[in-house]
Amino acid sequence: MSVRLGLEVGVARTVGTLSRAAGRGGGTTLPGKLLWKIDPGAVDALAARLREGVALVSATNGKTTTTAMAARILGSAHRLAWNSAGANLLSGIASALVSADGAQLGLLEVDEGALAEAVARTRPRAVLLGNLFRDQLDRYGELELVAERWRETVATLPEETTLVVNADDPVVGDLDSTRARVLRFGLDDPRHARSSLQHAADSKYCLRCGAPYVYEAAYVGHLGEYRCDACGHARPPLDVAATAIELHGLQGSRFLLETAHGSAEIGLGLPGLYNVYNAVAAASLCFALATPPAAIRTGLEDFGAAFGRFERIPLGAKTIVMLLIKNPAGANEALRTLETGVPPVLVIALNDAIADGRDVSWIWDVDFEPLLPHAGTVVASGERAAELALRLVHGGLPEERLELEPALERALDRGLELTEAGGTLVVLPTYTAMLALRGTLADRGVVRPYWERDT
Amino acid sequence: MRIAVGHLYPEYLNIYADRGNIAVLRRRAELRGHRLDVQAVGLGDALDPGVCDLLYVGGGQDREQALVASDLAAKGEAIVEAVASGAALLAVCGGYQLLGRGYRGRDGSFMPGAGLFPHETEAGEERMIGDVLLDCELVPGERRVLAGFENHIGRTLLDPGAEPLGRVVYGFGNDGASGFEGCRLDRALGTYLHGPLLPRNAWLSDWLLSQALAHATGGDPYALDPLPDELEAEALRVATGRAKARGGRP
Question: Nearest-CA residue of chain A relative to B66?
Fold first, then answer.
């Protein structure tokens, strides 16, 4: 380490410790912010020191979970520099690199908008691109703008970099068309296809000619097996596929992970088809990094959940299940896991800070309708609780099953009160509402603060 | 009473929760004993100017808007005729732009619109994003507020004498400079406000329904019974506060 870099890193680490000591929560990006400010080039130098290189992960949905799954797989054989708390801008990446003493391999989740800079500074060995959905348009702009930036970024990747892409997403699957080193993953089990494309499906029209895609199977949003009858653009063949998928509600799923070199049956402790996508994505990235299949299987089966995305919290005789919602495609999949089983009491919490998206119109693109007949009482909460309540009423929720409680802690307590002993309370918060609710639960001693987690 | 609604390109123009606006109109009509009969009008479909009491055009991403633009321009004459004969119309964001004379891109290209609203839109330098509050007076002497969210790079310039939908209290509005937002032509309204617009702005939903009913009956704007609207009022109160605290400035 150069003298200057050593000094900067020392200062940044101290700030991180002080930030936690001062009780300001986490300090996950503070040291990185400082380092990023003093010397952005330090990120390049720190990344270059990682002997086994850097792997980057980006997507609209599932990037935190996918990265955490890959960390579980890779963590047994490699010392990782990993931004585990989802701080995925360059400052968060700088933090992860600063605080990982003696790391060999960088495993970095990257915000969709920060991919170009992250690629330029870390010269990655592998880049995993998972999906593109409409997301907080007030922050990211339209999907096509992000797609165009990704195309430009992929064109700058070094020849030896392996690109890992979700072939089921027409836009993402098309990013690789001219590259030699590429690994394509997807799902192959039409039993789990939706009967029609969801309302929030985005890339419905052929990239090449504009005609509507025909779907053999649409799994999650516009992800699936597509083809264009007009020009022939179709999903490319898969190198890694999940087949024979069985979904077991909120309990988890099983599937067969298939590659040209063999297959393995995987039991996953996370619900929903979207987590099967995350698992296949993480497995594919690890294949690209030459990880043995046995380690991939063990890692996926041991995986609990990424911070705040899915948590099962026992509380006396009751259980809280918390599923993060942040955009239509992600929320649809979270809701889909609730469509079977006992109708739970729901607390849905909509905040509108920058991290949640200030524009709350996305809740109207979420398909709440199939869930509402299966729901018990719904407590609408968060700063935009009334907007959410209006959405639910227009989705068919009878007003006698709706309660309005903007204050998060009171909404949580009301939800628990309505939940019978032995029952499950399902909480669906947006990002800052999730942070606040976890804070409440941490104050009560039922969950650990996130900077003490070790998943 | 049956209210015939023509929803243009629902498969393409649906980005900012446009189905929420339709759901609100449907529910508020049904609570008064009326029925909303919504027909999708897609690419290549004929639009009969006499059939619809209300036309709806939502917003899309640039790619989807480009896919429908020429078809919508071809429907322009029918839309102009429908509005001239008293049909109501609501166009949001991209739909609002496409119903003007056209859109001038940064490269100088010009995409012709349907020619209903007296305005032209040009690509600006920076997106205008944020909460908005408008002061409207659709019925003389009845001033009302509208709260929504805007996100557009197009700057829409109204012709001299054109009537805006409202005056910008907080936010950017049509072009970030004029202090006006949207456009009104008889019973047709165009606006950048989504969110979606109608759930929290109950009075505007009722204004549109009463205009559509007037077209359906061939009579005057139709009086609708008031609804309790407690959630609507609360949502409007919070959205108004947002616009005040963090709306862009014209």
Answer: A210
